[in-house]
Amino acid sequence: MQARDIAVSLPTVTTRDSVAKAVRIMVIGRLPGLIIVDDLSRPRLVLPGTQVLRLAVPGSYQEDPALARTIDEAYADQFWLDLGNRTVGDCLPRDPARPVTVPTGANLLEVAALMARTRSPIVAVVDRDASLVGAITLERLLTSLAVFGLGEP
Amino acid sequence: MQARDIAVSLPTVTTRDSVAKAVRIMVIGRLPGLIIVDDLSRPRLVLPGTQVLRLAVPGSYQEDPALARTIDEAYADQFWLDLGNRTVGDCLPRDPARPVTVPTGANLLEVAALMARTRSPIVAVVDRDASLVGAITLERLLTSLAVFGLGEP
To answer: Which segments constitute the CBS domain (chains A, B) (predicted)?
Structure first.
């Protein structure tokens, strides 16, 4: 099998979408992360779910874990309200990593090694002009490999 | 809300379980990662799904991405067969990170900030003697925060 054989079509977002929308798309689709595309449908970023969450965590709490411990529980339940209409582009780190992509012809061990190394449970599959063809999630990879059929329970 | 209020009971593994079993438990439970406990039910490691996958990727391919590209597609579909009966303990990195845990009284912003910083979509909730009380997944956190109700679609 090649990456193209197991790639699936998943919703994407752009940097102009709100962070709230991005989180909602991820939750509703039960996705482990999101692919952020540019206007030509090329992956610009591939964010693991924890880094989509990070977009919604106010910067001061990201940097200083002890600070979050001091705040009021009721505020902590609603910290994401502070987001307002901020967009994905507003909240991205300054030097985002290169998008985690594989060519359509990549084999499944390449995909697995890439996920393991980049700690990204979602990988964008791109064609020769870098356009998005589909996505491979960790779950999709593992079920395609039928690893769950291996050995005894 | 506090961590104890949204913690759920999820299957765990020990270092004596096979990697194949660990992967299978993760896939069947649709879990974003696994908590590895010791014999006293204390979290020893909290592995994001990509790092559970990593246990199954032969070391040489982890280190050298180009190597995976050179191999036969049929072998790539079955690389995990090389695992045999190797256990989680056999395959762990030499210097594993401290387990990603929060106390039962942690607020939800603390949990969110920890997930974002450690890039771990699963967090172990522990009581005062470090025993496992439950787990919080990224999905559980986000649905508890009802972030998906925010703003327009």
So the answer is: 94-152
What gap in Å lies between CA B123 and CA B7, rounded to an integer?
9
The interface residues of chain A toward chain B in range 44-103, judged by CB-CB distance below 8 A, are: 48-51, 53-54, 56-57, 61-62, 65, 68-69, 71, 73, 75-81, 83, 85
Closest CA to A8 of A44, A40, A32, A27: A32
Helix (H) or strand (E) holding B43: strand B43-48
B108 touches chain A (CB under 8 A): yes
Tokens of A96: 């985002």
The secondary structure of chain B in percent helix, strand, coil, rounded to multiples of 5, reads 45, 20, 35
Contact B147, B124 (CB under 8 A): no
| Contact at CB, B51 and A116, closer than 8 angstroms | yes
Q: Residue A137 CB: number of other CB atoms within 10 A?
A: 22
Q: What predicted TM-score, i.e. pTM, was given to this entire model? A: 0.93
| Residues of chain A neighbouring B108 (CB-CB closer than 8 A) | 76-77, 79
Q: What tens-digit pLDDT sequence spans chain B (153 residues)?
A: 999 999 999 999 999 999 999 999 999 999 999 999 999 999 999 999 999 999 999 888 887 878 889 998 888 888 888 888 899 999 988 887 889 999 999 999 999 999 999 999 999 999 999 999 999 999 999 999 875 455 544
| Distance from the Cα of residue B5 to its chain's centroid | 21
